[in-house]
Amino acid sequence: MDIFDALAGHDLRSLDPSGGVLVITTYWRPRSGDPNPEQPGEKHSILSYLPTDADELCPCGSGNSFGACCQPLPYWRPICPNPDIQGYSLMHPQSARFTTIPANVVYAFLQDDERLYCVEDTSQRAFWTYWGDPAFDTPPYGTLCFGDLELQEDNTLFVSGLSDARMEVLLDLLSPLKLGTPKIQRDAFPRLEKPGRKRPKGNRRRTR
Length: 208
Known about the structure:
Helix content: 10-25%
Strand order of the largest sheet: 7-8-11-12-6-13
Number of helices: 3
Structural class: alpha+beta
Oligomer: single chain
């Protein structure tokens, strides 16, 4: 299940739009019935609700209070956990593409990094998900994921993350390789309108 499936499968009308924020957390877990309990597995996303008071710091990471940041907005601004569980950041899906890279060197480097878990290794591609060190296992959901790296057969490395903070960590991980400047693409996130607030009965305008 991807992040859009997680949103589509939730009735946001049941949530208090002024009492908290939406959190999307991505996990890696073994597929039920697989002979190998670790590979290939599957990624799935879960939507949760983080209650927040107006005078608390907004979980989005702006540094402002919730009441002066995300609370009064007419739409939701989903957040996701930062790597190493250091707070949250606004959802901002993005990718970085490195081309004409030394594939064998990059492959060996990524395989040796304990923060990464290789979930696919074929002649067409190798795929790692970033778990961090230590990894955060949260039964029964799985292991928290914070980004992906895909080494493609055309000597291209494709990196993806759901927030600015996650992409910063992934690019910092790759910095010793000196791969040059990647092509960055930032994807639009669907606007999620909050349900309309009901007026108190005493304030309703009468029509004649």
